[in-house]
Design a protein that fits this description.
This protein has three helices and eleven strands, in the order βαββαββαββββββ.
């Protein structure tokens, strides 16, 4: 299973991210835009993990302290990596110290499950588009100005896998649910942090 921890976007904020994408399409016809339903903020990329280890991971994530609802605010376009050709066009977001504290706690929870730590500095962003070959930094695009903000209430454990299936729901244990979205080549499974693995 290929997993990562993320914050889902609420509908109004997601729509604002879509508005950003639309404002970029004319100037960037050659980039691949993230499907609207797949927009999210990654807190921790876990990678491949055996399914039998998921219950312990969920328990570890469930122990992450909840420090109250906090705002997540769009602060401008971001171009990654920070040097060289641009391969990712993103929405930079600020969640104050509470977002940084949450990310550190998630990192620590994953470490208890022998998941390697991320050594790069956490860079909070929502990927809007990708360019495989990379754009020259001289071609940085501009986008419509928005004042986007949402309230973060929870984080989720997500699984991604290749699929050509349509949308479906998969039953899970009583403590949580798994909600499946399948769009073209990718399926995203959204699991609450207190989840148990579903039965196959």
């Amino acid at each position: 299973m290929r997993l990562f921890v993320a914050i889902e976007l609420d509908e109004p904020f997601r729509n604002q991210m879509i508005e950003l994408q639309e404002s970029l399409r004319t100037s960037l016809p050659e980039v691949s835009f993230t499907k609207p339903q797949n927009l999210h903020l990654t807190l921790k990329f876990i990678g491949e993990i055996e399914e039998k280890k998921v219950p312990a991971l969920c328990d570890a994530l469930s122990a992450v302290a909840r420090d109250g609802i906090f705002p997540l605010r769009y602060v401008g376009l971001d171009f990654l990596p920070e040097r060289g050709r641009i391969r990712i066009i993103a929405a930079a977001v600020d969640g104050t110290e509470k977002l940084l504290a949450l990310q550190r706690q998630i990192e620590a929870a994953c470490a208890t499950q022998n998941i390697p730590p991320e050594h790069r500095r956490f860079h909070s962003h929502i990927t809007l588009a990708r360019h495989r070959q990379g754009l020259p930094r001289s071609k940085k695009p501009s986008a419509v100005q928005i004042d986007g903000v949402m309230r973060v209430k929870e984080f989720v454990l997500m699984q991604s896998r290749l699929s050509n299936k349509g949308s479906e729901y998969i039953s899970a244990a009583s403590r949580a649910y798994i909600k499946t979205y399948a769009h073209e080549q990718f399926e995203y499974f959204f699991l609450l942090s207190s989840c148990q693995p579903h039965n196959r």
